[in-house]
Amino acid sequence: MLIRDLIANKHTKSFDRRTPASNRFLSLLTPRWLRRNMDALILEPSLYTVKAVLILDNDGERLYAKYYDETYPTVKEQKAFEKNIFNKTHRTDSEIALLEGLTVVYKSNIDLYFYVIGSSHENELMLMSVLNCLFDSLSQMLRKNVEKRALLENMEGLFLAVDEIVDGGVILESDPQQVVHRVALRGDDVPLTEQTVTQVLQSAKEQIKWSLLR
Amino acid sequence: MIKKFDKKDEESGSGSNPFQNLEKSAVLQEARIFNETPINPRRCLHILTKIIYLLNQGEHFGTTEATEAFFAMTRLFQSNDQTLRRMCYLTIKEMANISEDVIIVTSSLTKDMTGKEDVYRGPAIRALCRITDTTMLQAIERYMKQAIVDKVPSVSSSALVSSLHMVKMSYDVVKRWVNEAQEAASSDNIMVQYHALGLLYHLRKNDRLAVSKMLNKFTKSGLKSPFAYCMLIRIASRLLEDTEGGCVRARVCVCVCLCVSVCESMSVCVCVCVCLCVSVCESMSVCVCVCVCVCECVSPKAALRYAAVRTLNKVAMKHPSAVTACNLDLENLITDSNRSIATLAITTLLKTGSESSVDRLMKQISSFVSEISDEFKVVVVQAISALCQKYPRKHSVMMNFLSNMLRDDGGFEYKRAIVDCIISIIEENPESKETGLAHLCEFIEDCEHTVLATKILHLLGKEGPRTPSPSKYIRFIFNRVVLESEAVRAAAVSALAKFGAQNDDLLPSVLVLMQRCMMDSDDEVRDRATFYMNVLQQKQKALNAAYIFNGLTVSVPGLEKSLHQYTLEPTEKPFDMKTVPLVTAAITEQKTDIAPVATSKLPEKLTPSRQDIYQEQLAAIPEFGAWGRCSAPRIRCS
């Protein structure tokens, strides 16, 4: 049976010249169903673990989205995917779901929904660490006010934070303290002369609000 | 009045989205202020943010406008504002693919990379490597090597990750940095260790000996980072898979990692999955893993519970007896608020459950099946299908359950899975045939998927005539002829013909119905009806057998080729079916994977059989081609 398989395989398989002969022989000895099952269960070791990071608002509209591979190459497909996962996750409060063959870990806060997407065989806890890092760093940068308006006013902080956490699909940093330190955003110390009237009134309102709350 | 306007203005100014209704052309126009001196950091920052926001929303930037914006942005390097500089790096990365001549910033980036400000160095390296090509890479090689072994962890991490990205582009150059990466791997910082290990593996992937040496070294010296442990376990498993159980070192490594990672939950899940796939560790380790998973089943964090249940699910596939001890905990998880966890718990219980618990499980599943997503519904149906094969006596309970699920809303994959399950029950269990066929008939009354309807009609035609009272199925089939689309009508006509051929008492009524079908609007239906009418009217068993019961025994691509050949050569004699090669192997449906997969986007093509491929190759050779098609039967040579 083995020899017939070997001869038959010669016709249909083209061998990669780089793999040594011993490898080829051994891979023929492993029955194909076992190899296929093992491939499905073991992920090829790789640093590329994150497929996408998304932030959606209360209506499922995209506030921020970064895709690190070609799972959804066009904007149209991306938007369809975002709509799909929003519909499936915004009602329930659980942290994790398996959708469209991908592992999705998510967290919501007031009017924002944070998602980190990885392959279905990916380690869920790694994806959770990315999500927690992102959420905690944003929480520190926005002074615990993680909601849509505050986020939109600090979009540059968000861009830089995500850049420090994931780079091209590789987890770069998992400690939120380090991320905040590296983003190194200065506070809103804009000189009074540069602000517009509405901005001054707004900052005055904020100050009064905080003093009342204290 | 004026006050009111002010208030409205204020509210709209501070409450609404500052990025709403952004116009790309307006923003690019604003970008012209980058050319002014002195640079106003706050305004420039705001405009850059707007540009990146637009890119993020999927707005398309043409090459010219992108290049213009890019060049304008390069002027911002003159400012010393930290945030502005960081945003410039980000813009470089975002626009690297859409703008031309991005390499002009190389010198500024190189300066920042080797400068004194540590905050700039990491991001500058990452931006530089995004715009570098092979020739430039050799120029900055020296700086990259220094950066990899730098004491500042952010610089080292950035350098390692960027090197990884560049492996795809120029493997030979990056390979020379192996020693630096090795040094970085002994760093204290957990992320640097993780990145260094990943890079080393990617560089040595094809050299099994080097990988096993590396594995050995790290197992002895120990790692600090849980991320790195996950990576190490996966590498070890890959090595084991390749060497087919020959590599003792890899085995030892995995066992050591298992012991260490029992303390760290992140590694446990990976470890267990891996161990089971490769069947490295035997029953004792399996029990250890299962115990750890059970502890995590009661964890308050959903992600841990999910990981634990998924691992137990995988264990159940290979060692169902080991999971039986956890049945109690798994039953608690059935009522979990996270539906994915509940579904996985149920499917695991279905694999390990006993016959008495089947009824109870079915009731529990039916209570929440409407709330879970389609992919999980398919998983549950597949688990039920496996269970049906295990306990054939429970078929009535399953059949009821499946028919209820069939009545609910669902996608095509879901309905198909249920139909396949019912068909498999009917085929295995003759007692369930009547009920099964009745449920399927009810389903096709209201089915919008043509593929499923035709499949069920085909099945009815095959099995219906053999039942004790075939006449009741005729009503269902004839309704299809009247009401549905062309493909379904044609299938219904074929099914009717089968009834007429097998049951002589039904033959007159079938013939009357066929007469009706001959007036159909679609030509395929009319052709079939006329053909079957003529065959049935002959009332000869042999003809019935040849044309109605047995399908096409030749391969369809082969038939197509032969017909094409026939039309090309003008001959007097008629087309001979015997020249078409028969189908050699029976087409068996592959069992789909248990894990839910994304629905395939490409339609499945009918692959030609091996004989057809050979024929084509032979015909290509002019000497053989002249001899025409190969029609002699296969003879064993010697």
From TrEMBL, chain A:
The family database entries (InterPro entries) matched by this protein are listed as: AP_mu_sigma_su (IPR022775), Clathrin_sm-chain_CS (IPR000804), Coatomer_zeta (IPR039652), Longin-like_dom_sf (IPR011012)
Task: Provide the topology term for how it sits in the membrane.
Answer: Peripheral membrane protein
What CDD domains does this protein's entry cite?
Zeta-COP
GO CC term (a single one) = COPI vesicle coat
Has keyword Cytoplasm? yes
Work out whether the entry's keyword set contains Protein transport.
Answer: yes
Q: Which residues form the signal peptide?
A: none
**GO biological process, any:** intra-Golgi vesicle-mediated transport
User: Which positions fall inside the AP complex mu/sigma subunit domain?
Assistant: 49-187
Identify the keywords attached in UniProt to this record, alphabetized. Cytoplasm, Cytoplasmic vesicle, ER-Golgi transport, Golgi apparatus, Membrane, Protein transport, Transport
Kindly give the Gene3D superfamilies that the UniProt entry links to this protein: 3.30.450.60
User: Cellular location of this protein?
Assistant: Cytoplasm; Golgi apparatus membrane; Cytoplasmic vesicle, COPI-coated vesicle membrane
Which PANTHER family has this protein been placed in?
COATOMER SUBUNIT ZETA-1, ZETA-COAT PROTEIN
Q: Which family does it belong to?
A: Belongs to the adaptor complexes small subunit family.
Q: What does this protein do?
A: The coatomer is a cytosolic protein complex that binds to dilysine motifs and reversibly associates with Golgi non-clathrin-coated vesicles, which further mediate biosynthetic protein transport from the ER, via the Golgi up to the trans Golgi network. Coatomer complex is required for budding from Golgi membranes, and is essential for the retrograde Golgi-to-ER transport of dilysine-tagged proteins. The zeta subunit may be involved in regulating the coat assembly and, hence, the rate of biosynthetic protein transport due to its association-dissociation properties with the coatomer complex.
Q: Fill in the subunit field for this protein.
A: Oligomeric complex that consists of at least the alpha, beta, beta', gamma, delta, epsilon and zeta subunits.
Q: Spell out the protein name for this chain.
A: Coatomer subunit zeta
TrEMBL record, chain B:
**UniProt-annotated location(s):** Cytoplasmic vesicle, COPI-coated vesicle membrane; Golgi apparatus membrane
Query: Which Gene3D superfamilies does this UniProt record tie to the protein?
Result: Leucine-rich Repeat Variant
Q: What membrane topology was assigned to this protein in its record?
A: Peripheral membrane protein
Q: Which GO terms describe its cellular component?
A: COPI vesicle coat; endoplasmic reticulum; endoplasmic reticulum-Golgi intermediate compartment; Golgi membrane
Please provide the record's keywords in A-Z order: Cytoplasm, Cytoplasmic vesicle, ER-Golgi transport, Golgi apparatus, Membrane, Protein transport, Repeat, Transport
Q: Where is this region: Disordered?
A: 1-21
Tell me one Pfam family matched here: Adaptin_N
- Superkingdom, taxonomy of origin: Eukaryota
Task: Tell me a GO biological process for this protein.
Answer: organelle transport along microtubule
Q: Where is the composition biased (Basic and acidic residues)?
A: 1-11
Every copy of the Clathrin/coatomer adaptor adaptin-like N-terminal domain together lies at: 24-539
Classification via PANTHER family: COATOMER SUBUNIT GAMMA (PTHR10261), COATOMER SUBUNIT GAMMA-2 (PTHR10261:SF0)
Protein name (Swiss-Prot/TrEMBL): Clathrin/coatomer adaptor adaptin-like N-terminal domain-containing protein
- Provide the species name: Aldrovandia affinis
